[in-house]
TrEMBL record:
It comes from Microbacterium aurantiacum. One of its GO terms (biological process) is tricarboxylic acid cycle. The keyword Glycoprotein does not apply. One of its GO terms (cellular component) is membrane. Its main location: membrane. Its cofactor is heme. This is Succinate dehydrogenase. Keywords: Heme, Iron, Membrane, Metal-binding, Transmembrane, Transmembrane helix. It comes from the Bacteria. Pfam families: Sdh_cyt. CDD domains: SQR_TypeA_SdhC_like.
Length: 115
């Protein structure tokens, strides 16, 4: 049940991110000054944390999508859905922990005036 709920939530969140991304990128054709203003608002630590959340959603959605493909096409996967979901969570954690540490180090070094 939780894998189904999280898959839907992450899918909807990714859709809305892509919608906003397309709209803010389209601003460059309408008004380069407006585009620059919008892009400058993205350069803050809150948006850096939002990027971590976005990557977490994409990574979970991708790994769980692969699990769903396995369950749909192979009978052995249907019998092992719970173990596969724990595998998805494990892969997600192994992927996200190093990314989060590295990304937030970069985001907050920019705040302190570092490289």
């Amino acid at each position: 049940m939780w894998s189904w709920v999280l898959h839907r939530i992450t899918g909807i969140a990714i859709f809305f991110f892509l919608l906003v991304h397309i709209l803010d990128t389209a601003l460059i054709r309408v008004s380069p000054e407006a585009y620059d203003a919008v892009m400058s608002t993205y350069k803050n630590p809150l948006m850096g944390i939002g990027e971590v959340v976005l990557v977490a959603a994409v990574v979970y959605h991708a790994f769980n999508g692969l699990r769903i493909i396995l369950v749909d096409f192979w009978a052995w996967a249907t019998r092992h859905q719970r173990q596969l979901w724990w595998g998805v969570l494990g892969l997600w954690a192994v992927t996200m922990i190093p990314f989060t540490v590295r990304h937030l180090m970069f985001v907050f070094s920019e705040v302190g005036g570092g490289n």
